[in-house]
Design a protein that fits this description.
InterPro entries: H-NOX_domain_sf (IPR038158), Heme_NO-bd (IPR011644), NO_sig/Golgi_transp_ligand-bd (IPR024096). The protein has 179 residues and is of the alpha+beta class. 54% of the residues lie in helices and 16% in strands. A 4-stranded antiparallel sheet has the order 1-2-4-3. The mean pLDDT is 93.
Length: 179
């Protein structure tokens, strides 16, 4: 997993819960990296899981809810760091439908060894989108949060439902209906 995911996560934790909590979850997690991340480095997903678990235990906030909040933070990072990608879209469904064939291609130009989930479009209309998320990691709530922020960014709204295809969350169907 790319280091930017870790550095931004720890920045969010510090912002929301304080530096002491950052130090606490890093110490409790007993990380091979010792919590010293660089944005372009690559780190084991198990480190993120450990950080999330310890933060969840400390805050009594579910990991799914933490991932939703983190996605909101991360979307802002994307908008601020790569505005040209976002500005090339006029509609949230259009943007979400192009994750695989445009956005991920741009990410891979910046982070060539990034391990990204795949999004397969099942069907798309002017007001709806159905797609399958597949990943070796169960981060579908992070994806849901990014989708929610996409609609917020375009000042639009939608009903987004998730249906786990695999119980562990590594394969999920997202059904999006624009309101």
């Amino acid at each position: 997993m790319k280091g930017i995911v870790f550095t931004e996560f720890l920045e969010l934790v510090e912002e929301k819960f304080g530096l002491e909590v950052v130090d606490k979850i890093i110490t409790q997690s007993n990380l091979p990296s010792k919590g010293a991340y660089t944005a372009v480095g690559t780190y084991a997903f198990s480190e993120m899981l450990s950080l999330l678990n310890h933060l969840s235990n400390h805050t009594n906030i579910s990991i799914d809810d933490l991932l939703l909040v983190y996605a909101e933070h991360f979307f802002k990072v994307i908008v601020d760091s790569y505005p040209e990608i976002i500005k090339s879209y006029k509609d949230p469904l259009e943007m979400l439908a192009s994750i695989e064939n445009h956005i991920h291609l741009e990410v891979l130009k910046i982070y060539p060894d990034a391990e990204l989930p795949t999004f397969t479009i099942i069907d798309k209309t002017e007001d709806s989108l159905n797609m399958i998320y597949k990943s070796s990691r169960s981060m579908h709530y992070f994806g849901l949060g990014l989708m929610n922020k996409t609609f917020d960014h375009f000042k639009a709204s939608a009903t987004i439902t998730m249906e786990k295809i695999k119980e562990n969350g590594t394969e999920v169907k997202f059904s999006i209906i624009k309101n």
